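Hey,
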Amino acid sequence: MVDPKTYEIAVLKGDGIGLEVVDEALRVLEVIAETEGISFNFKDYPSGADCYLAQGTPLPDDTLVACRQADAVLLGAMGNPEIRWPDGTEMRPQVDLRFNLDLYAGVRPIYLYASHHTPLKGYEAGEIDFVLMRENVEGLFASMDSGIELRGEVATDTMVITKDGTERIVDYAFQLARERQAARVSSGIAEFVPKVTCVDKANIFRSMAFFRRVYDTVGENYNDVSREYAYVDAMAQYLVQRPEEYDVMVMENMYGDILSDLAAGIIGGLGMAPSGDIGKDAAVFQPSHGTAPDIAGKGIANPVATILSAGMMMNWLGSRYSDDVATRAGERIEQAVKSVLADPTNGTPDLGGDMSTSQLGTKIAEAIFDSKSQ
């Protein structure tokens, strides 16, 4: 009998509330290890703005090497508006990781867990359920550290869109739409046609017209998946007016950065928005939110996005290593969050509740433990 794999997880807690919310995700994963028999080796590595103050870099070489070698990376949040580079930009090692590890696919699920979480009228739990696919290593972000400033009078950043880079993110989006439909069918929900929406500004920018052409070419290989288009400014309206109509959306880096924050706002805020930055050989899982210096250390940060990111990590490990136990663990984390948040009294202050970070994390961990005995 082959011994079960021990998953090597690099843990980058970062700055601000990152330390607090990662601790709750680790609490949940420890219960998973206990109840599923999965073995983890968690190892902390320095990173972030405070690391820059201590070591002169926000992403030490040893940390980067560890992230390359780990089975996956669990990341909290990084940066501090008070700690900046000489050019005025913030420390952003989480973005540097995407480029260094070629984590091209930014996978950002948006799911409404409770009706009282959304500022929109008339939506019940589960009625908002889509995934925003953000191309992670091109677009406007390709100008990071290489933009031009002349004489203190002119500054430029360039949008970079490549054929290969666009093909792989669009292909990922169409495959994900298929997988989501298969999951619906297995759950007895078969009436929804899978759909990928291309979000761009193809009416104005040549780079975006090119992005759309590549999208169409890739989409021809997926006749079972519906294709749709929306300009990014219109999509900002549609997400507020009719979010229930969307399945998977694919877009350029900066557009994805902006719309993922808007999308989080319609399900309760960034504390409810997990994400995975995924490449061919590596993956980083982290909440979509930042370090929130205004509430750091107060014990009121919402840990749900980080816990759900840990669940995404388990699903990815399950797929990567054909490990059904890891996949089941990811599903159990998701179901535990659903069961806990179904009770309107459960929530941190951002959700209208009065629970602390550790209280909500503990509640979810207990729900996972209890689910094993059912």
